[in-house]
From TrEMBL:
HTH cro/C1-type domain sequence ranges: 15-75
Name by which UniProt lists this protein: Helix-turn-helix domain-containing protein
One Pfam short name: HTH_31
Molecular-function GO term, any one: DNA binding
Length: 285
């Protein structure tokens, strides 16, 4: 968790404590506020929120504003939450309504970007996924996160975004580790079709597709997947959250990581050969 994020969470906690201590009708203890707010609340939860050790939900903020007799401050509290959650977006919160909402949230960034720089170590990147492959990825992630399944809506949103591959003036610098070609996150027949599609993408003039072979000498370990939107935003995926990072120094770091990995990547015919080898390995099963 970044220092800036934690500082913002602590600042929100200070504001929540202030509201409790100046509640309409008189100061409340943590236990009194928890009792007033009802099921799901305890003085421990109140303490964690006030001390920046737990991130408030939208529902928490609404309850807190109402419980302290200050419903008019809800919008202020919500703005504070949105401010620091724009940088760390937990999967639990994002997936509360399913994967379609996550796809819709990132689409504006795709639409405004001229150059998209992608690194994926384990999966075929979403920009070049087939519907069947994407479907299996969404289902497995929903199962892991125990989130609602809206698989078909999410697949449609992802595939619609791929229209950008055919727009003049766009550039997609896509790079992946060879492991992405061989990860059986779907049935072999689906992966075979995905690899056939991927081979065809190499011919697009908007795409630079690189693959880092298993046998390549690496100057840095593959690490997490990340997506760079021009040079103004990088989105990094982790198991608990997406990190939306927009500070110049961090963006420069991810660009260096990408360029360092690129030194080990192959393109064109060599990339085609790696894809073909992965397809042949599937046929021999």
């Amino acid at each position: 968790m970044s220092t800036d994020y934690q500082k913002a969470r602590e600042d929100l906690g200070i504001r929540l404590r202030e509201l409790r201590l100046t509640a309409t009708g008189g100061r409340l203890t943590g236990a009194q506020l928890a009792e007033r707010l009802g099921p799901g609340w305890s003085k421990v939860k109140v303490s964690k929120l006030e001390n920046g050790r737990q991130t408030a939900t939208v529902e928490d903020l609404r309850a807190w504003a109402d419980g302290t007799g200050r419903p008019e401050v809800y919008e202020e509290l919500l703005a504070r939450l949105r401010g620091f959650e724009s940088h760390i977006r937990s999967w639990r919160r994002q997936l509360a309504a399913g994967h379609r909402a996550v796809q819709d949230a990132v689409t504006p960034e795709h639409d405004r970007s001229k150059v998209l720089t992608i690194w994926e170590p384990c999966l075929i990147p979403g920009m070049v996924q087939t519907p069947d492959y994407a479907r299996h990825v969404f289902v497995r992630h929903a199962d892991l996160m125990r989130s609602p399944r809206d698989t078909e809506d999410a697949v449609r949103a992802r595939i619609q975004r791929q229209e950008g591959l055919y727009r003049q003036g766009r550039k997609y610098r896509i790079m992946m580790w060879e492991g992405a070609l061989r990860s059986l996150v779907c049935p072999p027949s689906v992966l075979a079709a995905q690899l056939h599609h991927l081979a065809g993408v190499i011919g697009l003039d908007t795409v630079e597709l690189g693959i880092v072979p298993f046998t390549a000498s690496l100057k840095i370990y593959p690490g997490n997947s990340f997506w760079l939107y021009d040079e103004r935003l990088v989105i990094v995926e982790d198991w608990h959250a997406e990190l939306w990072i927009d500070d110049t120094d961090s963006i420069a770091t991810y660009l260096r990581v990408w360029k360092t990995l690129q030194e080990s990547a192959v393109y064109g015919t060599d990339a085609q050969n790696l894809i073909n080898h992965a397809r042949q390995a599937l046929n021999s099963r």
